[in-house]
Amino acid sequence: MRIDIISVLPEIMESPLSHSIIQRAKQKNLVEINLVGLRDFGIGNYKQVDDYPYGGGGGMVLRAEPLATCIESLYTQHTYDDVIYLTPDGYLLNQKIANQLSIKQNLLLICGHYKGIDQRIRDKYVTLEISIGDYVLSGGELAACVLTDTLIRLIPGVLGDEMSALSDSFQDGLLAPPVYTRPEVWDGRSVPEVLISGHDQKIAEWRLDQSIARTRKRRPDLLNE
């Protein structure tokens, strides 16, 4: 998979995208991540990328021209399965969307900033708009990191245990059950006996019961879908 990310401040993403599972995925040549600085395509001597919104109001808007020039430049090098704009008014990211995107080959992510991007860019280029939650960030960079991490861990060969991602929360529409590791007794608290019983069916049943109970308590909306 190749992920190109357009940003006014690409340096914000350098550290999150250069460690742990993502870094191992890059070392295995399972994913390529390219950070593209929008200011390299800015207008005039000052490389301007933003301007005041028509109609008044606070904040600034990323201009169409530098974004279009940047996107068209990338188009000469690659074709994209989706052009994704990270924005609070996009579709809420969930595991189903992540699963669908994880099998794509080339993705282009656009990070909003200030009050967002000129709507005409959204109309012409963007194929999918994603939000990572019902709140507003200063820019789309952190959202792009969240989306990237979510996708990369689903790529076969990235995780050491291929089954690990399949047991994550939301994969089966439920929250994940509690997990335990050694020691068997800590601070007077014991691991549930069923987990050390060696009885696979009982363990699976216990985990399902725990998942349902946790989902009912914390995310009852998932049980109604």
Side by side, the strands of the main sheet go: 2-1-6-5-7
**Which descriptor suits the 3D outline?**
elongated
Q: What class would the helix/strand composition place it in?
A: alpha/beta
How many individual β-strands?
Answer: 9
> SSE string, helix = H, strand = E?
EHEEEHEHEHEHEEHH
Number of separate helices:
7
How would you describe what is shown here?
- With 225 residues, this protein is an alpha/beta fold.
- It folds into 2 domains: 2-152, Alpha/beta knot; 169-223, Orthogonal Bundle (Trp Operon Repressor, Chain A).
- Helices cover 31% and strands 18% of the residues.
- The protein has helices at 20-27, 64-75, 95-102, 119-124, 141-152, 200-218, 220-223; strands spanning 2-7, 32-37, 50-51, 61-62, 82-92, 106-111, 128-131, 185-186, 189-190.
- The strands form 3 sheets. It has a 5-stranded parallel β-sheet. A two-stranded antiparallel sheet has the order 3-4. A two-stranded antiparallel sheet has the order 8-9.
- α3 (95-102) packs across α5 (141-152).
- It starts with a strand and ends with a helix.
